[in-house]
Design goal:
Blueprint (H helix, E strand, L loop, with lengths): L3 E5 L4 H9 L3 E6 L12 E4 L6 H11 L4 E4 L17 H8 L1 H10 L7 E2 L6 E5 L9 E3 L2 H9 L6 E5 L4 E10 L2 E12 L9 E6 L6 H15 L3 E9 L3 E7 L6 H8 L3 H9 L13 E8 L4 E2 L11 E2 L7 E2 L4 E9 L2 H19 L1
Length: 357
């Protein structure tokens, strides 16, 4: 009998798909409920606000027996639910706090942006916790900082040294003080207001002169983090590799990692949780690119684009209203080279736009 796993968090489609392809029976507690989530799950419960997530998990557990649970963004610190497959909340908490993360990097001698405890501009302002980079912004004066603060919800924040370069990440697997890199990724950011540093996609593999050095540093970070299973480390590649954050969970780069390498990351994650790491880093078989399309105005999805899969994922149902600035759908390209992959991506974006926008 197949093992059944619960995937819970704000967005779960990517992990549910990987788990399904690894041979598991999957149920999901998710915010979006995209059409393709149903392709990979036996059941799903949707929630509106993260405060509703524990109750949704409890409701799902009353309906099904689960061998384990894997969490995604927004659910990292939950203690409720089936046995956790991955880093425990006690280990995760340290890396959900960006100040403590920076202190960890410094403690093991890894280059990271300095934290400014007073006025020192320009600086990168960011919430002390949270993922995706949506609130991150460069502030150049006390006035700009005050405006940035007023636009937020009063949550704790920090100011960091401004580091320029190419955004990148490394997907690692960790267990018992050891780690192995699986893939290096270039991160695609929105690059425009209101969230210029918000995550908008990825390209795997990352082809940069510092990619090898970044990989070595990431494996050291993951090994010393105390985390278990898949771990993502974000970098900025400038004159050197500068570590930015650590994500102790499945990352949003999962799709391009699997598409480029041919591995199943969920299987590797479960093996790492059992103390088994790959002998060596997988060799990319091709270049894969993902781009998230965002609404430039409020739109209503007019048609079902499921037939475009695997060129698309996170597919909204017809009739769904998407507010300006919110994500619509993920679009993919792949090819022998980065140029080939981006050319195919652009072709697929045109198809999507002609069908739903």
């Amino acid at each position: 009998m197949r093992q059944r796993v619960l995937v819970a968090g704000y967005a779960t489609r990517h992990v549910a798909q990987s788990a399904h392809q690894a041979g598991y029976s999957v149920c999901a507690v998710d915010h979006f409920g995209d059409l393709d989530l149903a392709w990979y799950t036996d059941d799903q419960i949707l929630f509106d606000d993260l405060t509703d997530l524990p109750g949704a998990i409890e409701e799902m557990v009353q309906c099904w027996h689960f061998d384990g649970m894997v969490v995604t963004s927004g659910a990292e610190l939950l203690r409720e639910g089936p046995p956790r497959w991955g880093s425990c909340p006690e280990k995760v908490a340290r890396f959900m706090d960006k100040v403590l993360t920076a202190e960890f990097f410094e403690s093991i001698g890894v280059r990271c942006p300095k934290i400014f405890w007073g006025s020192n501009f320009p600086a990168m302002a960011k919430p002390r916790s949270g993922a995706g980079g949506w609130r991150n912004a460069v502030v150049k004066s006390e006035e700009e900082l005050a405006t940035w603060i007023s636009a937020g919800d009063g949550a704790p924040f920090l100011l960091q040294e401004l580091v320029t370069g190419s955004p990148a990440s490394v997907c690692c697997l960790a267990t018992e003080g050891y780690a192995r890199a699986v893939a290096v990724n270039h991160q695609v950011l929105r690059g425009q207001s209101p969230s210029p540093y918000g995550f908008a996609g990825s390209i795997t593999p990352c082809q940069h002169p510092h990619a090898a050095a970044m990989t070595t540093i990431a494996q050291r970070i993951a090994a010393e983090s105390g985390c278990t299973g898949t771990v993502g480390i974000d970098f900025v590649l400038g004159e050197e590799a500068c570590a930015i954050e650590l994500n102790p969970r499945f990352q949003a780069t999962l799709d391009t990692v699997e598409m480029a390498t041919g591995v199943n990351l969920f299987s590797l994650h479960c093996a790492a949780c059992s103390g088994i790491l790959p002998v060596k880093m997988p060799v990319p078989q091709r270049v894969a690119v993902r781009k998230i399309l965002f609404a430039d105005r409020q739109i209503e999805i007019s048609s079902d684009i499921s037939d475009l899969s695997p060129a698309v994922a996170d597919i909204p149902a017809p009739g769904t209203t998407i507010e300006e600035g919110h994500a619509i759908v993920s679009v993919y390209g792949w090819g022998r080279t980065r140029a080939d992959a981006c050319q195919r991506l652009n072709k697929h974006i045109h198809l999507v736009q002609s069908n739903i926008m």
